[in-house]
Structures are given as structure tokens and as C-alpha cells.
Amino acid sequence: MAFQVLNYTIRLLKLNILLKYGTSYPKIYENQWLCSIFANKNPKCNMADKATLEFEGKKYEFPVITGSEGEKAIDIKTLRSATGGLTTIDPGYKNTGSCTSAVTFLNGEEGVLRYRGYSIEELADKADFLEVAYLLIFGELPTEAELNKFHSDIKTKSHVDEDIKKILDGFPKSAHPMGVLSSLTSALIAFNPASVNADSKEDMYNAIVNIMGKFPVLVAWALRKRTGQPLDYGDDSLGYVDNILKMMFKRPNSEYKIDPVVSNALDKLLILHADHEQNCSTSTVRMVGSSHAGLFASLSAGISALWGPLHGGANQAVLEMLEAIKEDGGDTKKYMAKAKDKNDPFRLMGFGHRVYKNFDPRAKIIKVAADDVLEKLGVEDPILEIAKGLEKEALNDPYFVDRKLYPNVDFYSGIIYRAMGIPVEMFTVMFALGRLPGWIAQWKEMRENKEPIGRPRQVYTGEKHRAFKEVSNR
Ligand code: ACO
């Protein structure tokens, strides 16, 4: 009897945990008994599948978890303890899931991208960037009242301490705006609460509206510093994206008129860049945040990761490549040959993707938008034709076809940015502006799920233990 009461109490306790951490998968999943009971209610908690590992004559079983879209993953959380120290090796994390996430779904084989269940095509067509930011960060599309409050709170926080200008002043005009943006985002810590209490909804919300308000100011200042324009603030009467455009392009002695073609194009581009699950910069944001470093510090690290030409920096690299091809007489075949030559470091920038092996759905939308925007703005850019020529050749070339290399989000975006009058060094900054809500959403999820500190293992291949040699003996 006593045993039954005890058993019943434990069950109630476990049910309590489940109710409390309903969406916090890692907390409850540790308990496989609970998982088996609620397997049909929680798709992440499917214990039916198991994977068996045979090593040195022994068999080990590991649970297989299933995501809400049916994707499966072997859960190796107990691998080391069960096997007495065995680890896995997977450079570049090509096969390794670092977390469970409810933010973005991506199927690279079929070219599917969804934010919180909504397709990227529908969002780019029907939503605006601020709505998408809210959706990513808080999980649902906002009501009108929620959106208005979000926007109004962002505007309240959009003031950047004047002393930040002194830091900006220390940079030479020639400094790359990505370096400037990363530094200024980090510098914000000195003027704002350094850390966020992740258990306080209010604290979390304040940090979010703070950075959503201040980041566009830093982006605009990074551009204005480079172009020698006075550093100014925004206009509260404007929408989020229109305000960004005005902050970037307003001249001191003339009115700035919003061009709806430019404004709509930027809105769409920002939506398409807003999140992309566990890419290099987002994983960086989660990793840095996992040490409980604050939001701004984590974002600053994410900006640095995005800067590289294999990631967000590719949009600048694409434009420079297309320009170089044009300058060189427009011979696309010559550059195709270089891209295929294993002895030549040249790569077709804007081509290939770690996860998309069919097409990048963002690139499809951007290609159509590029034609539309250039036509509406009356811009004739010869590099658009070079880009289309390269794409056509690559899509019919066995090297690219066999390796499943398709244009990615960065291939056509730079052509639109250029038509909008944005200098090439600012392209990756525009990417960061779009990615901000995704980074915030992923950082918030990581903290709310109470994820452990990110700390991969390694396989050591250096010298074995050896005795120290005095300098005279070396
Ligand atoms: N041009 C020529 N060959 C390429 C290209 C390219 N752009 N991309 C990949 N390949 C080849 C590789 O040489 C390799 O060939 P091999 O199998 O004969 O050795 C094969 O395709 C696989 O390439 P990996 O580099 O192993 O693929 P990975 O998934 O590691 O890299 C990446 C993906 C970094 C995007 C790569 O395709 C690339 O460098 N592309 C150009 C840069 C770019 O556009 N980056 C933006 C990505 S989108 C984003 O981050 C926003």
C-alpha cells in the first residue's frame, strides 16, 4: 500500500514537471518513462524507434527522436556514459543536431523553409518584416494591438547613448561596417543592463525591444560614418523599415521621400533573411549565449560569424565576383572553368549550400524580385545578365548538377541592394539587420529551454606526453 502511494506521488510529481515544462523538451525527455507515456502527445518524444550501436563486441541502444515534420535523430546524450568514453566526430557538424528548436523548419532536399509553420513564400508575399520578427521571437503572428505595442515599445527604446558616437569616431572611415556593427553592438553593453534575467519575462522583453530599436540606428550610423554623413536619429511617425531607410539615406539639407518600390523590396529581403535555423552565425549566438553571456554580446559574436564570405559575407563577394567578370569581358565560361578547377581556389560565390540540395526557396523569390525591382526603378544593371548567364550554365553543368549546387539567397540579393543605392560593403550589414529577429528568437529559446553550455569534444591527435626540455637542450 505504502509503495502504491509512493508510486502515485511520484507520478503526480512527474505530471507536474510535464505541465510546467510542457514545451521544454530537454527537461522532460531526460525521463524516458515519462516520454513513453506521452509519446503520442509529444512528437519529439517518440520512443518507438531505437538505434543500435555495436562496438567492441557490445551492443548499445539509443533512442531515436522524431521532429514534428517527421525528421529523425539518434539521441546520443548517454553515449559516453554508456560506452565508457566513446565520442563522435563530425567536423562542420554536417550530421549533428545541436538542439531541438520550434522556430524554423527547413527541408533542404525539397527546398522548404517555414518560420513557426508559415511558409517563407506566403510570409514574403503577405506579411511585413516587423510582423515576421514578432512571429519568430514570440511564436505567433501578432494581433493588431500586439503589433502596435511591439512597435511602440521599440520606438521608445530606439535612442542610442550619445557616447556611442565617440566610439564610432575612433574607427577610420575605411573600416568595414560589419566590424563597426559588431563592435558597437558589443559596446551597447556598457550603456545598458549587461545581462538579462532569462527567468523574467519583463527583462527578456525589455532586452528584445531595446536591441530591435537600437540596432537599426547602429546600422544607419555605420553607413553614415562611411559616407561622411551626420549621425542622426529616426522618425517615429514611420514604419520600422521606412524608418531604417530614412535613417540610412536622409541628407542633412533635403527631405527624404520613401520610394514604395525600395521600401517593399527591403521589407521582403529582410523577411527572407530573418531566420535560417542552426546556421553558422545562429549557432554562434546560441553557443555564446549558452555561457549565459548577455544578448548583446551573443549578437555581436553572431555578426562576426556572419561576416565571413562562406556565410553572409557571400552577398558582397558575389557582387565583387560579378563585377570582376564584367571587367574581364563578361566571359562566364572562363569563370565556370575556374570554379571547377580543383587547383584554383576560385568558387562561384552565391552557389552551393550546406543544407539546400535542390534549390534555395529564398533565391527563387529574390530572383523574381530582382527583375521586378530593377524594372520598376528603371535600373539597367549589366551584372544581372551576367548572373543569369552564370546560373543557366551552372544548372546545366554536370559538375554543379552532380554536387547539387544551386544559387543561394546571396546570389541575387546584392543586385537588388545595389539598385536600391546601398554600397556593396553594407550588403552583409543588411543581412544582419534581417537576421536580428532570428538570432533573438534562437537565443531566447536556448535560454528558456535551459540548454547546457555548448562545449564540444575533440579527438586529440597531438604529441603524447613528453618531458620538458631546457632551452639549452632544444
Ligand atoms: N563553387 C564551386 N564548387 C563548389 C562550390 C562553389 N560555390 N560550393 C561547393 N563546391 C564543391 C566543393 O568544392 C566540393 O567539391 P568536391 O566534392 O569535389 O570536393 C563540393 O562542392 C561540396 O562542397 P563543400 O564545400 O564540401 O560543401 P559545404 O556544405 O561544406 O559548403 C558552402 C557549403 C560553404 C556554402 C559552399 O557551397 C560555398 O563555399 N559556397 C560559396 C559561398 C557562398 O555562396 N556562401 C553562402 C552560403 S548561404 C549563406 O550562408 C547565407
Notable characteristics:
single chain; 474 residues; Citrate Synthase, domain 1; three-stranded antiparallel beta sheet; 21 helices; 52% helix; globular; binds acetyl coenzyme *A
Roughly what percent helix?
40-55%
Total domain modules: 2
Overall, the morphology is globular
Q: List unreliable stretches of 5+ residues.
A: 9-43
What is the fold named in CATH at topology level of the largest domain? Citrate Synthase, domain 1
Classified by CATH, the class of the largest domain is: Mainly Alpha
Which molecules are bound in this entry?
acetyl coenzyme *A
Q: How much strand?
A: 5-15%
Structural class: mainly alpha
Describe the structure.
The chain is mainly α and 474 residues long. The chain has 21 helices and 6 strands. The protein has 2 domains: 74 residues, no CATH class; 367 residues, Citrate Synthase, domain 1, CATH 1.10.580. Helix content is 52%, strand content 6%. It has a 3-stranded antiparallel β-sheet with strand order 1-2-3. The chain has a 3-stranded antiparallel β-sheet with strand order 4-5-6. Strand 4 and strand 5 form a beta hairpin. The longest helix is centred in the middle third of the chain and has 27 residues. About 7% of the residues have low confidence. Acetyl coenzyme *A binds next to loops.
